[in-house]
Design a protein that fits this description.
This protein has 354 residues and is α+β, with helices and mostly antiparallel strands. Among the domains are: 71 residues, Dna Ligase, domain 1; 67 residues, no CATH class. 30% of the residues lie in helices and 22% in strands. It contains twelve helices and 15 strands. The strands form four sheets. Strands 13-10-9-14-15 form a five-stranded antiparallel beta sheet. Helix 2 packs across helix 11, helix 3 packs across helix 4 and helix 5 packs across helix 6. The radius of gyration is 21 Å and the shape is globular. The two termini are 36 Å apart.
Length: 354
């Protein structure tokens, strides 16, 4: 059974003041504020903004979402555009998926040339996407590919945005929270799934899993309900299953291809299980991006506990504003206090005084 991690400590913290009604800060930001209170760091939200001021022993820092003063505009921009992130990681000798960047000015003929040039299946995603939105996985059919590219282009109206098309790597996906010096937390992001009991249908099992009080409808929470939509129905159909199918006892059924926690996936802490080479690669990746001090590294590998080589892993992307509540309130495993580590990065003297 999953370890039950109480989250009542978070939900009883003081509600941040200074924001416009109906414009709350993120869960991860609130966890930073909770850590600040515990460490004696004064905080203040600048009125009608999401900019937060932190003060400790005469030193003042600012952050917005999970982006600190120490992250520069170059660091933020480099992570915002996945094609730039891939270029920087490649220059640093880090393995990334083989792929191409499509621009709005590219012709459909060129799209097809890109598709033909890549090993299948491929992944199609917006260059500036998040939370798995408008990503299409496992594409092997040309018609499906063209539709996926058009859908990904619709994600943003920004003329500078585009679409990434890359070969799909086979492995498990992990989210690593790291600074330029250390790994803070690692979680396996298991795609949305249910486990059969030999009696209930898949629809029933989803309803049971959604009844877990730790799950919410808000995709920004640490655990999210599984929504039955076309993606779920399509993936079940690919497995020759339906919502009315009854899985055998103890058989795990995945109901989504993507592993995002925001679409009902499970976060499983594996921080203490990773091979040292995984941590080394994550830190190297953060340092490969100029002006980045705290990030979420999306890491895929065939075996997180084995020494990594250039063929055994891929770094998919880096997020300069990572949501880390999944590490503080994991579905299974030990809770990691990423909010406290964020404060330590902002105030190194605080660490030295402990």
């Amino acid at each position: 059974m999953p370890e039950q991690i109480p989250n009542t400590l978070f939900y009883t913290t003081t509600k941040p003041q200074g924001l416009a009604d109906g414009d709350p800060v993120t869960l991860s930001t609130r966890l930073i504020l909770k850590a600040a209170d515990e460490l004696g760091v004064h905080w203040n939200i600048l009125p009608n903004t999401k900019i937060i001021e932190l003060s400790y022993q005469g030193v003042t820092k600012y952050f917005r979402y999970q982006i600190s003063t120490e992250t520069t505009d170059v660091g933020f921009y480099s992570c915002l555009d996945k094609s730039i992130t891939s270029a920087l990681l490649t220059n640093a000798g880090i393995s990334v998926p083989q792929g191409f960047h499509l621009k709005t000015s590219d012709s459909e003929k060129y799209w097809l040339e890109v598709f033909a040039a890549l090993p299948k299946p491929v992944v199609v995603k917006p260059t500036t996407g998040n939370q798995g939105k408008e990503i299409t996985l496992g594409v092997e059919d040309e018609g499906v590919y063209v539709h996926a590219v058009k859908k990904a282009f619709l994600f943003s109206n920004d003329k500078e945005s585009g679409v990434i098309v890359e070969s799909q790597f086979t492995g498990k996906e992990y989210r690593i929270i790291a600074s330029r010096k250390k790994v803070i937390a690692v979680a396996y992001r298991m795609p949305a799934n249910v486990i059969g009991d030999g009696v209930q249908t898949i629809a029933d099992l989803i309803a049971v899993k959604n009844s877990d009080p730790r799950r919410f409808d808000d995709p920004n929470e640490s655990l999210v309900t599984i929504k039955i939509d076309d993606h779920v129905l399509e993936y079940l159909s690919d497995q020759r299953l339906e919502l009315t199918s009854v899985p055998e006892k103890d058989k795990r059924i995945f109901v989504r291809r993507n592993s995002n926690i925001s679409t009902g996936g499970d976060s499983i802490d594996v921080t203490d299980k990773i091979h040292p080479s995984v941590g080394e690669l994550a830190i190297k990746a953060v340092n490969a991006v100029p002006g980045l001090d705290f990030a979420g590294v999306d890491f895929m590998t065939k075996n997180i506990e084995a020494e990594q080589n250039s063929d055994s892993y891929r770094i998919i992307e880096i997020n300069s504003s990572p949501g880390f509540s999944i590490h503080e309130f994991p579905f299974e495993g030990k809770a990691r206090n990423a909010g406290r580590e964020f404060i330590y990065i902002s105030f190194p003297t605080l660490v030295a005084s402990i």
